[in-house]
Specification:
Elements (H helix, E strand, L loop, with lengths): L1 H23 L10 H13 L1 H11 L4 E2 L10 E2 L1 H15 L4 H7 L3 H18 L4 H28 L2 H26 L19 H19 L6 H20 L3 H18 L4 H17 L1 H10 L8 H6 L8 H19 L10 H4 L25 H38 L1 H20 L9 H22 L4
Antiparallel strand pairs: 1-2
Length: about 475
């Protein structure tokens, strides 16, 4: 009771002082109206963390970067401050939850996360630009831990929300897609305009494509699940079609590729295609490429199809390594990451430093018309090579171990739930395929440094871990 009185007193005093200041400052007077809302949200944080978490999920697709207001700070509001508030709360309450505190010490994924941040801190200290790396480290704490830790406790204690959570993502995302499509139509669906019409909600078409591809697999599997009513499945199908339209009009080849691979994996898993057939098919493809490698290279070199708003032409441009500036720039960035890793093989150049240091590593013959020395058009364009350049070989191994463990434990759990609880298995498969779509896309882009993607990636992982813990306790 004493703590509640102190908290209430603190909020009242803060509100009074803030009101006095804002009234005296005409430039910031409009913020006065936001204070009661901010206080109400803070009360949710302390007394209804579950609602606070759900509210954050709803707001992530709708959050806006303050860079849109000509403020030279990369911060999405209101969600990143909300995530930071959750992080502070976690430092005080992290072991209060019984399921988390007992599960934490025996779950390999949490141990990997501990090593992930421990190594990130070490490489931040050895960084070539200390302040940049420490800021990157802090930002990743609030991007990863709240959705993962709070998410695990939430989904464990309220398992019914494991199923409903996708709607907290899909509904606001559908609103953004409708806004983007209407905005895009005003530009006659021009491909160049398609790179920015999703602003201010998403920075560009590549992250927008990744976000839409991430939402689709769980929705698709829910449509075909007979457990839900016809009305529910129809509304889900409508959501799916809206977001699928967003993916198509994003012109994001990485998003398309990730979704295609996810659906392919889903078909293989759902219909239990024997591994030996997949292995023989893959081996045969590799042998054919080796045997006809010269013809394959000639075909790639002769491909001059640049990215286009035409779906078929855009697909064809994926393999254009001769004239497509986007493809060539990725090769340039990847090459720089590898060269940087050779200079800093163990500790890397430091988390978050690639964009400031890669310029001198560019070779003149690899530069393109969109090359820059400042990383304004993205960084390493790969989660894997980015971690290699910034955190060395150990950092990349830890990151790959995290991804590998999620899929290994997830698909292992799926095979068990398929018999024990088919509905849960269907939900789990949708989440796993969503993660497949992103981590395939992650070979050619990297977005885990923004809450737009990281919040749902780690929330989905939290659902998998909660299901795993429940199954182990025979609660599935």
């Amino acid at each position: 009771m004493k703590k509640k009185v102190l908290l209430a007193s603190f909020l009242v005093v803060t509100f009074a002082l803030g009101t006095t200041y804002l009234i005296s400052s005409t430039n910031f007077a409009f913020l006065l109206y936001a204070l009661p809302v901010a206080i109400a949200v803070l009360l949710l944080l302390f007394y209804r963390l579950d609602i606070f978490f759900m509210l954050t999920a709803l707001l992530v697709p709708l959050s806006i970067s303050i860079e849109s207001f000509d403020i030279n700070v990369s911060l999405f509001v209101p969600t990143e401050p909300m995530l930071f508030a959750m992080l502070l709360l976690l430092f005080f309450r992290i072991f209060e939850s019984r399921p988390f505190s007992t599960f934490f010490f025996k779950e390999p994924f949490f141990l990997l996360i501990f090593f992930y941040f421990a190594w990130m801190l070490i490489t931040s200290i050895t960084s070539q630009i200390l302040i940049v790396s420490l800021k990157f480290f802090l930002a990743h704490l609030w991007l990863v831990l709240p959705p993962l830790v709070v998410g695990f406790m939430f989904f464990y204690e309220k398992p019914e929300w494991q199923d409903k959570f996708i709607y907290l993502y899909a509904i606001p995302l559908a609103i953004v897609v409708i806004y983007t499509t209407i905005n895009h139509a005003g530009w006659n669906f021009d491909k160049k305009a398609g790179e920015w019409v999703m602003q201010p909600f998403y920075k560009d078409h590549t992250i927008y494509g990744a976000a839409t591809a991430l939402a689709l697999p769980p929705l698709l599997l829910r449509i075909f699940s007979k457990k839900y009513s016809l009305v529910s499945r129809t509304l889900t199908a409508l959501l799916f079609l809206i977001i699928f339209l967003g993916l198509l009009l994003s012109y994001s080849r990485g998003g398309w590729l990730g979704f295609f691979v996810a659906i392919t994996v889903g078909i293989i898993v759902y219909f239990r295609i024997p591994f030996k057939y997949l292995f023989l098919t893959g081996l045969g493809a590799i042998l054919l490429i080796i045997i006809f490698q010269q013809k394959v290279f000639d075909m790639l070199y002769k491909n001059k199809q640049d990215s286009s708003k035409n779906f078929v032409e855009n697909i064809q441009s994926i393999s254009n390594i001769r004239t497509d500036a986007s493809n060539l720039e990725r090769i340039n960035r990847w090459s720089c990451a590898i060269r940087m890793a050779k200079d800093y093989p163990i500790f890397g150049s430091g988390p978050g430093t690639y964009q400031f240091l890669y310029g001198p590593y560019q070779l003149s013959y690899q530069k393109t018309i969109i090359s820059t020395n400042t990383g304004k058009l993205g960084n390493a364009h790969s989660e894997y090579l980015g971690s290699l350049a910034e955190q060395g070989i150990i950092g990349m191994i830890i990151f790959i171990a995290l991804v590998t463990y999620v899929f290994y434990s997830g698909f292992k759990l799926y095979s068990k739930l398929r018999i024990a609880n088919p509905h849960k298995a269907n939900l789990l498969l949708g989440i796993l395929l969503a993660l497949v779509s992103y981590f395939v896309h992650a070979f050619i882009n990297n977005f885990l440094d923004t809450d737009k993607i990281s919040f749902f990636i780690y929330s989905f992982i939290a659902i998998i871990l909660a299901m795993k813990h429940q199954f182990e306790e025979n609660k599935a």
